[in-house]
C-alpha cells in the first residue's frame, strides 16, 4: 500500500499527473491493492491542483457515500485546502461544519485554512466568528491564525482591532513572527503610511524578529509609490548590509519606481547590474523599463530592449504589448504600432480589446481618425466586443474633428448595445459641443450627465470659464456654470477677476 501511495504522490507532482494517478487508482484493486486515506488524499490533491474541482468533489462524495476509506484530518484537510484555494470558501465552511458534527474533529490547521480564506475574501465578520468559536471547541489558535486575521483587518484599515489582536497574542504567549509584521507593514504602505511602516520595521527588529526580503520589498514599494526614491534606494541598499539576498522582485520594484519618476538612467543601471548578481530579468523587469524608456522619449532604446526581451526567450505579456503599442503611439510612431497590431493578428495571438483601444487612441491623437474608425468598425468581425473605453476614444476623436453627429450616434449605439457610458463619455461630448459653439446641446448633455450621477470634470469647467466674456451666449454659459458647478468657487473666481 505504501508503494501505491508513494507512486501516486510522485505522479501528481508532474503536469497532468493526477490524470494518470486517477486512472492508476481505478485499476489498482485488480492487482490486490486497497486504497487508503493517504491514497485518496494524494488523488484529491492532484485533482484540486489541476483545477478539476468538480471531479475532486465528486470523488470525495464517492468516498463518503461508499465508505471507501476511513476519513481522517489529512483527507478532510486536503479537500478544505483545495476548496479554499479555488475560491469555494463557502463549501469549505460547510465541510468544516460536517467535521464538527462527526467523529473526525477539525484541527487548528483546518480552521486556519478557512479563516485565512475568509480573510482573503474580505469576509472578516465570518472569520472572526469562526475564531471566537475555537475556544468553545477547545482548539488553540496559533500565530498563523492571528496573522491571517490581522491580514484581513489590515486590508479593511481596522487598526484598533489589529492592535487588540496583537495584545491578545502576547497575552497568550504567542509572539508575532516575520509574516505578522510583514502583513502590517504591507497594509500600512498601501494606506500611504510609510513612515509608520518604517516604525513597525524598527519594532520588529527590536523584538529580534529578522525581516526577510519580502518585508523589505513591501517597505521599498511603499516608498516608491510615494515617489520617495532616495528612501526606497536606502531600503534596497540596507538589504545587502543585512545579508538579505536580493531577488528579481526587489530589483523590479526599484526599477519600476525609478521609471515612474522618470529617473531612467538609474533604472537602466539597476537593470544592467542584475546579471552580475546572478539574477535574470523577467518579463516584468523588461515591461517596467519599456514603459520608462518610451515615456522618457527614448524610443529607439525601448525597441532595442524589446529585442533583448525576445532574445532572452521571454514571452511578452499583455502589459508588455500595451506599453509597446502605447509607447510607439506616444512617440509619433503610430504607423509602427498599427503594423505591430497587424503582426500580432497574423501570428494568431490572443488579442485583447485593450490593444485596439491603445492603437485607436494613438491614431486619433495623430489626427488619423479614418484609420481609427476602421479599427473600431472592424472589432465585431474579430470577435471583440466594443467597450466603454473604445467608444470613448472614438467619441473624443469625433468631437476633436467637429463630427458631433457621429459622436452622438456612437453614444446612442452604446446604450442600445448595453455599453454603459461613464463620466468620460459625457465630458468628451460636452467639451466637443462647447468648442463647436453648440451651447444648447452642451447644456442638454450636461443635464443628462448629472441625471446619471456623473459630474463635469475640471477640463469642462475650465472650458466654460474660458468662454465667459468671449461670446454673445454668455448668459447661457453662466447658467450652465450656476446649474452644474458643485460649489460657488468658480463663480467667485469669475466675479473677483
Number of helices: 29
Overall 3D form: globular
Enumerate the spans where pLDDT stays under 50 for 5 or more consecutive residues: 1-5, 7-21, 23-27, 488-492
Radius of gyration (CA) equals 30 Å
The first-to-last residue Cα distance is 90 Å
Order of helices and strands: HHHHHHHHHHHHHHHHHHHHHHHHHHHHH
Derived from helix and strand composition plus strand pairing, the structural class reads mainly alpha
Helix content: over 70%
Main sheet makeup:
none
Strand elements, count: 0
Question: How much of the polypeptide forms β-strand, as a percent range?
Answer: under 5%
Mean pLDDT across the residues is 87
Any key phrases for this structure?
disordered N terminus; 497 residues; mainly alpha; globular; 72% helix
How does this model look, in words?
The protein is mostly helical. It is 72% helix and 0% strand. The chain contains 29 helices and no strands. The termini are far apart. The N terminus is likely disordered.
Topology diagram in text:
Layout: H1 2-11, H2 17-28, H3 37-49, H4 53-66, H5 73-85, H6 89-101, H7 108-120, H8 124-136, H9 143-155, H10 159-171, H11 178-190, H12 194-206, H13 213-225, H14 229-241, H15 248-260, H16 264-273, H17 283-295, H18 299-311, H19 318-330, H20 334-346, H21 353-365, H22 369-378, H23 388-400, H24 404-416, H25 423-435, H26 439-451, H27 458-467, H28 474-484, H29 489-496
Helix pairs in contact: 1-2, 1-3, 2-3, 3-4, 3-5, 5-6, 5-7, 6-7, 7-8, 7-9, 8-9, 9-10, 9-11, 11-12, 11-13, 12-13, 13-14, 13-15, 14-15, 15-16, 15-17, 16-17, 17-18, 17-19, 19-20, 19-21, 20-21, 21-22, 21-23, 22-23, 23-24, 23-25, 24-25, 25-26, 25-27, 26-28, 27-28
